Inverse folding.
């Protein structure tokens, strides 16, 4: 009996949370079109979320590409089709691994920081201070961060993919002796702009919107205690990552990207 | 909240955006093939009975050198595959040139190989290539081979009259 009641309560809480997130998203969207344009804050957030993520994205992209090159080579070698290594590395990076891994990394690195920052503002009543000066905290604090995350994600994803392609080339051509021309030509002839690259960029954009929204929402609604900020940060990483993976499946299933 | 102007930071953000856009451009233009390979513009057509797994954007080669790509594949009124080839205008094709669909390796991608002829007359933009050679379907070859072996065996077993079921 109580298990069923718990399940009901859990479901209601989930739906309630989802509804609040949607309302919050609407508020952020409205803040984005109402002047003033907070360009200064936006650029600062681009720096924190984007520029400071370059190293982790570059290193991880390279590592993933190198692993793909190695695994792909070993599998393809059984069929004597190592000349198709470029297609294997390219398609897996562009269609799935690039956008998804970038989103997971960005949520872990930048999303959690955003949540902790906004959560601390809540805990130290800075947002209430803004409200007292009749400054809308959604407009002043949340909107530049969410917008920056949305813009940064496709850029980071493209960077990740290019580094991955390079990593695959390093291992495949440099180490395993695949022909460099074959790697590039199988890459270029199997990847299509409309079918693969466009979908990859759209995925990056969607994941950016999700990550920005979840991270700012969790911070904005965090309990005004140190435990609350800590829980909100954890929740950003968990909910953000799960959401990205689920939405990735939905996008792939619906549009075959 | 840093509301002050920060030139170095702004510069770094600018660099980041440029690098990200360059990565997107590389993926779209080179890898995605929005504008890839040698200059095109010279269009010729080749009609095949069987194209196997040939796809748009497959390379077109002369002596192994890429000179263009497949831009479209449609079914003509007689249900044969009409393939549009977009070639480098610098390539001059005699009218007795033939196009064949071949495979790189056993399981590799299909591409179009052009065997130049010797006729003094040349193919003009938008014309058809006279000679084509269709793709070889591995499964069909294997099927034929197995069938032939089976028939041979069958005849032999008939002669020996062992009545062994196949």
């Amino acid at each position: 009996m109580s298990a069923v009641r718990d399940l009901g309560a859990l479901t209601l809480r989930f739906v309630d949370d989802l509804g609040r997130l949607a309302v919050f998203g609407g508020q952020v969207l409205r803040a984005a079109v109402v002047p003033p344009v907070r360009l200064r804050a936006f650029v600062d957030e681009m720096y924190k979320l984007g520029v400071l993520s370059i190293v982790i994205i570059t290193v991880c992209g390279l590592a993933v590409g190198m692993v793909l090159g190695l695994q792909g080579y070993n599998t393809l070698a059984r069929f004597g089709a190592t000349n198709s290594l470029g297609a294997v590395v390219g398609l897996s990076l562009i269609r799935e691994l690039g956008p998804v891994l970038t989103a997971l990394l960005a949520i872990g690195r930048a999303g959690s920081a955003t949540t902790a920052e906004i959560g601390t503002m809540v805990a130290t009543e800075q947002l209430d201070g803004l409200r007292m000066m009749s400054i809308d905290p959604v407009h002043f604090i949340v909107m530049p961060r969410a917008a920056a995350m949305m813009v940064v994600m496709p850029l980071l994803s493209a960077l990740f993919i290019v580094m991955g392609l390079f990593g695959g080339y390093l291992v495949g051509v440099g180490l395993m002796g695949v022909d460099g021309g074959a790697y590039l030509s199988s890459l270029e002839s199997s990847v299509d702009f409309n079918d693969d690259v466009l979908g990859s960029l759209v995925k990056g954009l969607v994941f950016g919107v999700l990550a920005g929204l979840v991270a700012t929402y969790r911070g904005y609604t965090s309990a005004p205690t140190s435990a609350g900020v800590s829980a909100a940060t954890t929740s950003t990483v968990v909910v953000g990552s799960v959401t990205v993976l689920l939405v990735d499946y939905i996008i792939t299933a619906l549009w075959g990207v | 909240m840093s509301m002050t102007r920060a030139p170095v930071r702004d510069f770094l953000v600018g660099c980041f955006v440029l690098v990200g856009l360059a990565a997107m451009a590389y993926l779209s233009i080179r890898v995605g093939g929005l504008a890839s390979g040698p200059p095109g513009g010279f269009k010729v057509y080749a009609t095949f009975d069987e194209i196997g797994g040939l796809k748009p954007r497959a390379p077109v080669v002369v002596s192994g050198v890429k000179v263009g790509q497949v831009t479209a594949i449609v079914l003509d009124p007689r249900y044969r595959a009409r393939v549009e080839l977009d070639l480098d205008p610098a390539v001059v094709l005699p009218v007795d040139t033939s196009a064949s669909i071949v495979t790189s390796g056993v399981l590799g991608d299909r591409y179009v190989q052009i065997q130049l002829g010797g006729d003094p007359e040349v193919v003009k933009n938008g014309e058809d290539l006279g000679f084509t050679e269709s793709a070889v379907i591995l499964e069909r070859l294997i099927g034929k081979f197995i069938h032939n072996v089976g028939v041979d065996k069958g005849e032999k077993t008939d002669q020996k009259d062992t009545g062994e079921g196949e």
Remarks:
- Chain B touches chain A at residues 1-3, 5-6, 9-10, 12-13, 15-17, 19-21, 23-24, 26-28, 30-34, 36-37, 57-59, 66, 69, 104-109, 111 (CB under 8 Å).
